[in-house]
Amino acid sequence: MKKAGHSLYLMSNSSSQIMQYNLQTMNKDFDDVFTADDTGCYKPQLEFFSFVQRKLNLNNNNHLHIAKGFWWDIVPCAKIGWKKIWINRNRINGLKEYQPYKEFNDLSALPTYLKTIQSIEDKNIQDHHQKPE
Description:
Layout: E1 9-12, H1 16-24, E2 32-35, H2 36-39, H3 46-56, E3 65-67, H4 70-80, E4 84-87, E5 102-104, H5 110-130
Parallel strand pairs: 1-2, 3-4, 4-5
């Protein structure tokens, strides 16, 4: 995803100290990492998400939240209105009241999906600029 020009941020309930060790095994592909130490709280508390939103100046036009945790990520994202993709590796049933969200069983289809939605967004921007005023 980094090669496609996407910024990647990690949000974790882990401590910064533990996360430094974990990042060594993940090729350090992340632009930044937000832990419970940074936010002063844990997911699924909305304050965690609000902290990251403020720090990165996020809105629904400039980001998409991708996560495995339904209760820890998808539910709070629904509550604050973020666009989201659920990586449902355990193939459990999500709750309809927290939709809409896109759902995949693993990350393999994600790059193609992101290209597709980027193409749609690019076309919408192009169509908007071509409309006569």
